[in-house]
Design brief:
Helix 2 packs across helix 6 (228-240) and helix 7 (252-263) crosses helix 11 (356-368). The strands form 5 sheets. The chain has a 3-stranded antiparallel sheet with strand order 2-1-5, with no helix packed on it. The chain has helices at residues 6-13, 31-40, 137-140, 145-149, 189-201, 228-240, 252-263, 266-269, 333-338, 345-352, 356-368, and strands at 79-84, 93-94, 104-105, 114-115, 125-129, 168-171, 174-177, 274-276, 279-281, 289-291, 309-311. It has a domain at 25-143 and 188-240. The N and C termini lie far apart (47 Å). 26% of the residues lie in helices and 10% in strands. The protein has 369 residues and is an alpha+beta fold.
C-alpha cells in the first residue's frame, strides 16, 4: 500500500482527485516544504471555497510563475485598486469593502473561472498592481527591523532629494516593520500567505490575531477553508524559495555598469545588500518607501504610505520579471528607469546625462543581477 503524505491526504479531502496524489518528497527536503509546494500549485475550486465570491486566480502559482513557480506575473495578471481622492483634492478614502475589487468569480461547476459582469464602482481614483516575484523572500523575512530603519532619511538630512521611510505597522499593539508588498504593507512572510489567500483567492484562513487573514465569507464551505497547518506549510515553501543568483558575466561592461549604478545614485535606494542573521542579503533594495511618481500623481493611499509611495523593489533576478514598476507601466529596464520621478528624478537625470555606452553598461549590469 502506498502511504500518502499529509498534503496528499489534504488534497484528497479537498476533492482534487487522483492527479494531485502521486507527488513524492524530493530526497532530504522538509516535508512541510513539499506540502506547501503542492498547495501553492493547487488549482482550488468552488468546492474548496475559492472566491468570496470573487477572486483574482484559482491558485498561488497562477500569478507567481515567471520565470519559475514563485516568480512574478505578466501584465495580464494585474489587478486594479479603487479609491476616492475627491478628484485629486483629497483626502483619500477607501471604497466600501476596501481598495481591491477582484476580477473573477468561480464557476458553478468544473468549467473555467468566469469574468465578472461589469458593475458600477463608486470611485474616482484607480491604480493597477503588478504581481511581484517572491523568490528570495525567505531571506528578506530574516532582515531585522533596525537594519531597515537605519537607512531612513525622513528629513533628507544629506540634501540629495531622496528621503525614504520604513512602513511601520501596528500589530497586536506592537510596532513591526513592513517588508513585503508594493507599499510594504506586510510584515512577515506568513502574513503574506494569509493576506493573499483572502484577497487574491477568496479563501478563508484561521484567526492568528495578526489581522491579515480573511476569517469568513458568504459561501457554503465551512471556515476556515485552509487550516493553520496548510498556511504554515505554504509559508515554509515560500521561505524555501531560493534567491535569484547573479549570472556572473565576465564582460567588463557589467563591472562598468555597476560603477555607473552607484555613481548616478541608484544604489541610494537599491542598496546592494542588507544584513541578515546569516550574513548579507544581496537584494538590491532598502525596503523603504519612496515617492517615485510625478507631481500630481493620483493613486492608492494607506496609513503610513501616501499615494505615490512604494517600497523599493529588490532587483535580484530583475532581468526575468518584466514588466516593471508597481503597475507594469514599463516594458523593459530602460523604460523602468525613465518611469522614475519624484525623489528619483535627480537619479534619472544623472543616468540620462551619461554616455550611451555607460547607459548600456548599466542595463547589462542589471541584467546580470
Amino acid at each position: 500500500m502506498i502511504e500518502l503524505s499529509v498534503a496528499q491526504k489534504h488534497l484528497l479531502a479537498l476533492g482534487l482527485g487522483a492527479s494531485a496524489l502521486f507527488v513524492f518528497l524530493p530526497q532530504g527536503e522538509d516535508p512541510s516544504v513539499t506540502r506547501g509546494r503542492e498547495l501553492f500549485d493547487t488549482p482550488f475550486h468552488i468546492r474548496q471555497g475559492v472566491g468570496s465570491p470573487e477572486m483574482n486566480a484559482d491558485s498561488c502559482r497562477a500569478c507567481h510563475q515567471d520565470p519559475i513557480m514563485g516568480g512574478a506575473g505578466p501584465l495580464e495578471l494585474n489587478v486594479t485598486r479603487f479609491g476616492f481622492d475627491n478628484n485629486g483634492a483629497g483626502p483619500f478614502q477607501n471604497v466600501a469593502g476596501g481598495q481591491g475589487l477582484s476580477k473573477l468569480h468561480p464557476p458553478p461547476d468544473t468549467t473555467r473561472e468566469e469574468h465578472l459582469a461589469p458593475s458600477p464602482v463608486l470611485a474616482d481614483c484607480f491604480e493597477q498592481r503588478q504581481t511581484p516575484s517572491i523568490l528570495g523572500d525567505g531571506l528578506i523575512d530574516t532582515i531585522p527591523g533596525p537594519e531597515i530603519t537605519a537607512n531612513e532619511d525622513p528629513t533628507d538630512s544629506n540634501s540629495d532629494g531622496i528621503f525614504g521611510v520604513a512602513r511601520r505597522l501596528q500589530i497586536n499593539g506592537q510596532e513591526e516593520i513592513g517588508r513585503f508588498g508594493w507599499k510594504a504593507q506586510i510584515a512577515r512572510l506568513a502574513d503574506f500567505v494569509d493576506d493573499a489567500a483572502g484577497n487574491e483567492l477568496g479563501i478563508t484562513t484561521p484567526d492568528n490575531g495578526r489581522g491579515f487573514a480573511m476569517l469568513s465569507d458568504g459561501d457554503t464551505v465551512a471556515d476556515p477553508e485552509l487550516d493553520a497547518d496548510a498556511v504554515s506549510d505554504i509559508a515554509m515553501f515560500l521561505g524555501s524559495l531560493p534567491a535569484p543568483q547573479r549570472a556572473g558575466s565576465t564582460d567588463p561592461r557589467v563591472a562598468q555598469g555597476e560603477q555607473v549604478f552607484g555613481a548616478v545614485g541608484c544604489a541610494t535606494c537599491h542598496i546592494p545588500a542588507l544584513l541578515g542573521p546569516n550574513g548579507p542579503v544581496p537584494l538590491y533594495s532598502n525596503l523603504l518607501l519612496h515617492n517615485v511618481m510625478p507631481a500630481g500623481y493620483r493613486g492608492m493611499a494607506e496609513p503610513g504610505a501616501a499615494a505615490g509611495f512604494f517600497r523599493t523593489p529588490p532587483l535580484w533576478g530583475i532581468a526575468h520579471t518584466a514588466p516593471y514598476m508597481h503597475d507594469g507601466r514599463a516594458e523593459d529596464l530602460l523604460g523602468a528607469i525613465a518611469a522614475h520621478d519624484g525623489e528619483a528624478a535627480g537619479v534619472r537625470a544623472a543616468f540620462d546625462a551619461r554616455s550611451a555606452d555607460e547607459r548600456a553598461a548599466l542595463i547589462l549590469f542589471l541584467e546580470d543581477l
